[in-house]
Design goal:
The structure holds two protein chains of two kinds. Chain A is of the alpha/beta class. Chain A has 21 helices and 16 strands. Helix content of chain A is 45%, strand content 12%. The longest helix of chain B has 32 residues. The chains are: A alpha/beta, B mainly alpha.
Chain lengths: 481, 281
């Protein structure tokens, strides 16, 4: 080998070092993430635009129920990484973390439990399905369809959980059963209701029974959108507008936009999942009403709000009503007790086509890339047992609507009459994509905020027809109808 | 012209715009500071003046230090930012020097290649990078970030230093070589001291980017106490739609301190490093 001069050494070192980042950047180009699988048909969604009057109980094929058994010895010494979204009720998050740690100690498994802000979860899951590093992930409604090829089939286990709990609620079946299979364990979801100030609405002329009577007799204020807007107009005139987020965040904007659309006769698609049913005359009329109401009743800065702004505005007594889970109430009991005392929750207002909620289940899935699939299954079996699941469900004080029917009559719903109305979510709940089926396309439309942006465009331009035409065109690109 | 004119002209032409600019720049820091010292209840009471503190409290800082792993986040961020900056500057000095001073086949293409690498958005690479990190079993270790950050720091720092090295007259270095110095010796003893402003500005740039980086830190190192400040702040102080405003602001303030501290010491060199060659004198 010839002698290398200092000059040559420096040249080659520079070449090698300079090329390193480029080589790394190019050599590491992994094949792109597997394209989303073709949508498969899940069971038919409830037809028609009229909401059913009674919740449907639907258990899937009988299968062995999940039993809390001692975990097998082979998982001892392994590790388990669990990733969830942050909880709307902090106590639930703390409890889940403690439960996971306790289970790990009992079974000799090193458990790490991490919680990320919901918008940050998908990049992390995206990397994990390619590279591993996480065993169990929490999935927002619809994601169990999106990631189905990367998830372990949990059909037998989920069927066992359903059977033991008297069957999964209809909203769970609609939003997690994928062509007869479960690729993730449904755990229910956080409910939504109209949060309102009792005394202010009474001043505006609303007939509001005592909270205990409402809960006992199921007599929650039952308003139409027109009635609700009429109260809102009076209250905004007093400096107490309604608060509604129309920005890009995962919860509140979607929770309002979809139900308002459905209750006024429009849908993303017809039952076939292809024919766009968005640009309907009755929806255009309803949107015109909403544009007017936005000026007359709402806090007009809501177009830039995310999920947090309405909580802060309600607790600051700036708004008279807002759609939200019970997190405002739970937080107010600690930080703003006077607000908590004067607030209650009621049903989503109804429109000519009925009353609707956008309500689907979240799930816990095991990634195929996991190095500890057995350990992950054992943990989920243990967590799904009544003792653990019940404790986790109850500590969220009505924020969480459970996966199976048996929890619908749990004492948690009567302990505080002000949260009783959250039991109505499953009854009126529909999934994204309704009247078609929730799936990859509806998840895409949801992720692109097409329905929400239609409302935002309408309120900003004042042109209901143009906004809805825009939305219909965008939906057409996704659904191909 | 600066320094001339009547007092009135100086007030309205210089000081007033500067004061307005200062208020505009510092208001976010002022807001963060006062919110971090307010009790949570006060944030929701509109009868209070939002620009002042009615009830002073340390509870948000106590929460940050007692209920979160903030000290670990701080330590992690410091280790990752310091190490990745050190590696990046070391490599960039060698690359920049070689490209500026040595003639070898492909040097121009290499220079262009490095610049092209800088143009690749890091967000496009996080999934392939994740596979590399997984292959070497580096998830949730400092090395996951220490080795990945230089991939987007080195291209910029090399480009910056290459430009800076070219502004230093060759004759100085050639004199050293004639007097018996080696290439490496002249780089260390002659070029680097003269290029110190450029090296410092590349260092500050690298440190700031590493300190604030979010996506890679979220994907590669975000389990338990192994978080950096940007990731820990949003994952542990935002619970879905409930934000711990006071502690969020406290974390943001404390997270800004090291960068502000470094800037305050090296701001002159930073400015001269970035503007080297901009004006021919």
């Amino acid at each position: 080998m010839g002698k290398v001069s200092r000059r040559q050494f420096l040249s080659r070192a520079a070449l090698a070092l300079g090329a390193t980042p480029i080589l790394l950047a190019t050599a590491c180009q992994a094949p792109p993430a597997a394209p989303p699988p073709a949508a498969t048909k899940a069971p038919e969604a409830p037809a028609a635009t009229k909401a059913p009057e009674k919740p449907t109980v639907a258990a899937t094929a009988p299968a062995p129920a999940a039993q809390p058994t001692a975990a097998p010895a082979q998982i001892k010494g392994t590790s388990l990484a669990i990733l969830e979204g942050t909880y709307f009720v902090a106590a639930g998050q703390d409890l889940f973390k403690k439960m996971a740690q306790d289970w790990g100690q009992q079974n000799g498994v090193t458990v790490s439990t991490d919680f990320l802000n919901w918008p940050d979860l998908q990049p992390k899951i995206g990397a994990a399905v390619q590279a591993g590093g996480i065993d169990i992930v929490e999935l927002w409604p619809g994601w169990c369809f999106l990631y189905r090829d990367q998830l372990v089939d949990l059909t037998d286990f989920a069927n066992g959980v359903a059977q033991k709990g008297g069957g999964f609620a209809q909203f769970v079946l609609n939003s997690s059963l994928d062509n007869g299979k479960y690729y993730a364990l449904p755990i229910g979801n956080s409910g939504t209701s109209m949060n309102y100030r009792i005394s202010w609405f009474k001043e505006a002329g609303a007939d509001i029974p005592d909270p205990a009577v409402q809960a006992k007799e199921g007599k929650w204020p039952d308003w139409t959108w027109d009635q609700f807007f009429a109260f809102g107009k009076k209250l905004k005139a007093q400096g107490r507008p309604i608060g509604q987020a129309l920005g890009h965040s995962t919860g509140d904007p979607q929770s309002f936009a979809y139900p308002y659309m459905w209750s006024n006769g429009a849908m993303e698609t017809e039952k076939d999942g292809k024919t766009i049913a968005f640009n309907k005359p009755e929806f255009v009329d309803a949107m015109k009403k909403f544009i007017q109401a936005w000026k007359d009743c709402y806090d007009e800065t809501g177009t830039s709000w995310d999920d947090n702004n309405n909580n802060r505005a309600f607790m600051s007594q700036q708004i008279c009503a807002t759609l939200n889970g019970s997190s405002i109430y739970i937080a107010s009991k600690k930080s703003a007790p006077d607000v908590a005392a004067d607030m209650n929750h009621t049903l989503m207002p109804k429109g000519p086509s009925g009353r609707f909620y956008q309500f689907s289940t979240r799930t816990l899935g095991i990634l195929k890339k996991s190095k500890n699939i057995e350990g992950a299954k054992e943990f989920l079996k243990w967590f799904a047992d009544d003792k653990q699941y019940g404790e986790w469900f109850r500590i969220q004080e009505g924020y969480q609507v459970a996966n199976t029917q048996k929890w619908a009559t749990d004492p948690v719903w009567t302990k505080d009459p002000k949260i009783s109305v959250y039991t109505q979510n499953p009854k009126y709940g529909r999934d994204q994509g309704y009247a078609g089926q929730i799936g990859e396309k509806s998840s895409l439309a949801w992720s692109k905020y097409i329905v929400v942006d239609t409302f935002a465009k309408a309120t900003q331009s004042g042109d209901a027809k143009a906004a809805i035409e825009w939305g219909a065109e965008e939906l057409k690109r996704i659904y191909g109808g | 012209m600066v320094g001339s004119g009547t007092l009135g002209r100086r007030i309205f032409g210089i000081y007033l715009p500067l004061v307005l600019f200062l208020v505009f720049l510092l208001f976010p820091f002022y807001w963060m500071t006062i919110v971090s010292f307010k009790p949570t209840d006060d944030l929701f009471k509109l009868q209070y003046n939002p620009f002042w503190i009615q009830h002073f409290t340390f509870e948000n800082y106590l929460y940050l230090f007692q209920e979160t792993d903030f000290l670990s986040w701080f330590k992690n961020t410091m280790i990752v930012a310091t190490a990745s900056t050190g590696i990046s500057i070391f490599c960039s000095v060698l690359i920049g020097y070689a490209l500026a001073r040595l003639r070898f086949p492909g040097s121009n293409y290499l220079g262009v290649g490095i610049f092209m690498a800088y143009l690749v958005p890091p967000t496009l690479l996080f999934i392939p990078m994740a596979q590399v990190i997984a292959t070497f079993d580096l998830f949730n270790t400092y090395w996951a970030l220490i080795l990945t950050y230089p991939t987007h720091l080195i291209p910029f720092a090399s480009w910056l230093l290459m430009g800076y090295f070219r502004t230093i007259p060759k004759e100085i270095e050639e004199s050293a070589l004639i007097d018996g110095s080696s290439r490496l010796g002249s780089l260390v003893r002659i070029i680097l001291p003269l290029a110190l402003p450029g090296v410092l500005s590349a260092g500050i740039f690298s440190f700031t980017l590493s300190w604030n980086e979010f996506l890679y830190a979220l994907i590669f190192m975000s389990s338990g106490p192994m978080k950096t400040i940007p990731v820990g702040t949003v994952s542990d102080l935002i619970k879905a739609d409930v934000l711990f405003w006071g502690s969020l602001m406290a974390s943001a303030i404390l997270g800004s301190v090291p960068v502000a501290f470094i800037y305050s010491f090296f701001v002159d060199q930073y400015v001269s490093g970035l503007t080297a060659g901009a004006v021919k004198g």
